[in-house]
Amino acid sequence: MRNIVLASGSPRRKELLTQIGISFDVVKAEGEEIIGTEPPEETVKKLSMQKAREVSDRTGAAVVIGADTVVAADGQILGKPKDQKDAMRMLRLLAGGAHQVLTGVTVILRAPEGERTICFAETTTVHVFPMTEAQMRDYVQSGEPMDKAGAYGIQGRFAAYVSGIEGDYNNVVGLPVGRLFQEVLAAGVDLRGFANGAG
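Predicted structure:
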């Protein structure tokens, strides 16, 4: 099985990889995401490593890409909201301030001569306009925040409240594809050069 596998069911990560011309299969990691007490950067790297390792062991694919995104505000790590009340709590933390979006990426490269692992975290700062309670409630009721870290999607309706970003926009969407491509290229592998499928 000489192919590239994305260890994530995220439609946004899938779109981003497709956008830069990489062909791949999707095999979702099944493990539970457990956010510990480490700094956000260590947390996302560890979570991305768990996903990549699980799928690599299961598939034996030549390249497995694992990724995990969290939002960090006021020293708190915000994962996906548990319910609408939790989403409101997160939006109150983000409105009118700046926060960080961190994506951990792990790439496991398998070759006859052995295995190599690339692991890094990318951080982007996002600035949010002040929001009223009614605006937050309206956004939560749209359903958009419920499957997203930090309870918002920058590429969706929430864009109306983003005043600016510092860093990689794609990282906020869910995958810093530029850095991913360049890091793997530096390791001698061109992700676009793979013919996907058994072989």
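Summary: The radius of gyration is 17 Å.
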